């Protein structure tokens, strides 16, 4: 029920279902494939009255949104290709419902890698060989009309845990009365990589469900995401890191170099500190000096540094 004396107006509204967990098996003869997704599907459009006038006639129930995710997991020819599957779902919501003008589809993909037996990929057995999740963030915008749909697509990952025991320094930072940290030319660097890259969708291919196969072929997402992961890991390993900031910047430059479809990349890196333990009370030298060489560390969960940046193609 609305009150006669409203002091505010509805300035933003978006709703849908999150944590829609679905796994899909695809069988090609006895060669099986599996994806496991956690989906968030949110909608915008002419839905104000559902908030302001208790008018549910404009509400596509979040239960129906969840059902749509499950139905598409069964019927979409793109279900194994998360970015294209997200576009498929996103285009569906804005074309199926006249009053829905924008959809926001986020997919987190859990890792199932094929098990190798005697050096041969097994037909239907998989292993969770890493905590990292592949991410897709997709916005489908039909607010300029259902015939001229625009899309924004980001691919990325999170929870990719890495550590190097050398090739990382941190020196020449601000020293003042608040500083206790010593300079180090050699330290452990560990972080959990979160990264999102914005992808240019092919400008010459209208964003329709019928064109998704062509878009998938042009962008080759498995190759693209594989290249981004390779750039992240190889830059982390190879860079003589002056800081988390400097290494993440080089990583994002390398991605722009190797992936022409990437317009922009953002990263968020916690600096998971490994603190050398002072063992001098036990007459043990644990290499606490500036040049590193410590062998025993206290891995600290918190606090952690938290370094973020975005690099945009010129
Ligand atoms: O790579 C680093 N960047 C910082 O900004 C910072 N601050 C800090 O205490 N250690 C580090 N390391």
From TrEMBL:
UniProt superkingdom: Eukaryota
Active site, per annotation: 17, 62, 273
Residue positions binding O2: 62, 271
Gene Ontology BP terms: purine nucleobase catabolic process; urate catabolic process
Presence of the UniProt keyword Oxidoreductase in the record: yes
Subcellular locations according to the entry: Peroxisome
EC number of this enzyme: 1.7.3.3
Protein name: Uricase
Source organism of this protein record: Kwoniella bestiolae CBS 10118
């Amino acid at each position: 029920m609305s009150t006669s004396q409203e002091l505010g107006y509805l300035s933003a509204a978006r709703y849908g279902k999150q944590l829609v967990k679905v796994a899909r098996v695809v069988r090609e003869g006895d060669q099986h494939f599996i994806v496991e997704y956690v989906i968030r599907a949110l909608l915008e459009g002419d839905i104000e009255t559902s908030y302001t006038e208790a008018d549910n006639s404009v509400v596509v129930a979040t239960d129906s949104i969840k059902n749509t995710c499950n139905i598409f997991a069964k019927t979409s020819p793109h279900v194994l290709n998360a970015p294209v599957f997200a576009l498929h779902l996103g285009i569906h919501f804005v074309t199926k419902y006249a009053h829905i003008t924008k959809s926001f589809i986020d997919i987190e993909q859990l890792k199932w890698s094929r098990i190798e037996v005697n050096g041969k990929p097994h037909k239907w057995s998989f292993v969770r060989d890493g905590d990292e999740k592949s991410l897709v963030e997709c916005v489908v915008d039909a607010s300029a009309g259902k015939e001229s749909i625009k899309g924004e697509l980001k691919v990325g990952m999170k929870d990719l845990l890495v550590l190097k025991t050398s090739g990382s320094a941190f020196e020449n930072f601000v020293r003042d009365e608040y500083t206790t940290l010593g300079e180090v030319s050699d330290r452990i660097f560990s972080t959990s990589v979160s990264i999102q890259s914005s992808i240019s969708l092919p400008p010459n291919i209208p964003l329709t469900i019928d064109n998704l196969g062509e878009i998938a072929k042009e962008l080759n997402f498995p190759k693209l995401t594989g290249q981004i992961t390779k750039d992240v890991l190889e830059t982390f390993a190879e860079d003589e890191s002056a800081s988390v900031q400097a290494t993440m910047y080089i990583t994002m430059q390398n991605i722009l170099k190797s992936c022409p479809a990437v317009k922009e990349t953002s990263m968020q890196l916690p600096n998971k500190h490994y603190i050398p333990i002072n063992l001098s009370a036990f007459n043990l030298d644990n290499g606490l000096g500036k040049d590193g060489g410590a062998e025993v560390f206290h891995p600290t969960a918190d606090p952690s540094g938290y370094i973020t940046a975005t690099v945009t193609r010129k």
